[in-house]
Specification:
Layout: E1 2-8, E2 14-20, H1 24-33, E3 37-43, H2 50-54, H3 63-78, H4 83-93, H5 97-111, H6 116-120, H7 129-141, H8 144-201, H9 207-241, H10 244-256, H11 260-281, H12 286-293, H13 300-314, H14 319-323, H15 331-343, H16 346-401
Antiparallel strand pairs: 1-2, 1-3
Length: about 400
Amino acid sequence: MLFQYSAIDKDGNKKDGSIEAINVDIAISSLQRRGFIISNIVESEKQGGFFSQNLSFLERVSNKDIVILSRQLSTLFEAQVSALRVFQLLASESENPKLARKLSEVVNDLQGGSSIAGALEKHPDVFSNFYISMVRAGEESGRLDEVLLFLADYLDRSYEITQKAKNALIYPAFVISTFFVVMILMLTLVIPKITQILIDSGQEIPVYTQIVISISDFFINYGVFLAIAAVVGVFMLVRFKQTPAGRESFDGFKLNIPYIGKLFRMLYLSRISDNLNTMLASGIPMVKSLELTKSVVDNEVYLRAIEGATEDVKSGASVSEAFSRYEEFPNILIQMIRVGEETGNLGEILATLAKFYRREVTNSVDTLVDLIEPVMIVALGLGVGTLLASVLIPIYNVSSAF
């Protein structure tokens, strides 16, 4: 932000100027360090063009930004730095403009007497309910530095395993997209020219070649309509996915995809176990932990299961008993939780389960990547090879006849 100020310097002379700072407090501190006595300071009116004024919606705070911020918070609080100073430092050092603005607003709220959780709660687009509840638990228990350490470790693990799963799907998506682009280009640009050669030769065209020519004609004559239908279809799917029924349908479909579904299940079970362990270690009651866990699991099917289990726990059931009523939770997880409840080591059991499922996700992703690369290459080669063979063989027969 740019601020215009009026001040008096060390020699008593009046000074007018401007200074760039994250917020007005940091601007005032910078001027005071120069020995200025400030009489007036206001934020300058921005005179940027259309893009500078209207593209703020493109700014976002990624999970990686939150992971880094949490680690910095943990370190600074562990070093006994005051909360106000911590957020001032992080606001001035953040490389993300949106996060810097949010942290500056948190600083202002803290100066106004708000608690840290209360200040963070005003920014739900950056800090989740889970994040705020963890911070509130740390403030209430007087163990904020420990809770922030738990939180930073949890977000780090969650980010790592989620990114690994996402990255595993990037390569097959790229190869499949390339395959379709190559096939469409060949059918619309290459095949028509070769088809004309076959027609001019007067030779009988084989059935498999006629099929390829028909497909090529369809793309040339109706390709625009097909593209429009595809765009409309994608738009409708996106709109449907935003509805409760759509989210549940898509999330249920993800869990039933061969092999990929198993990967997603282990990812969600790892997230649930790790989240519960982190919250219990921070002193948050089980019912509250379950209520917050459903907001971070990111799957409607498991969300419904956790909602039902939460109601069962409120009615007096144990966690293992509540989970056993839902097929989304495997028997090994239920048995392990039961052992933890009976021995009083539920936190350690949940940590072990989270570690087990993280390892399974990692192994499954590595196996998937190792298998999918050769399969995709072979499929791409067969598709293009079959297409070329269907038109080149007749051309070869024509040339052999002369």
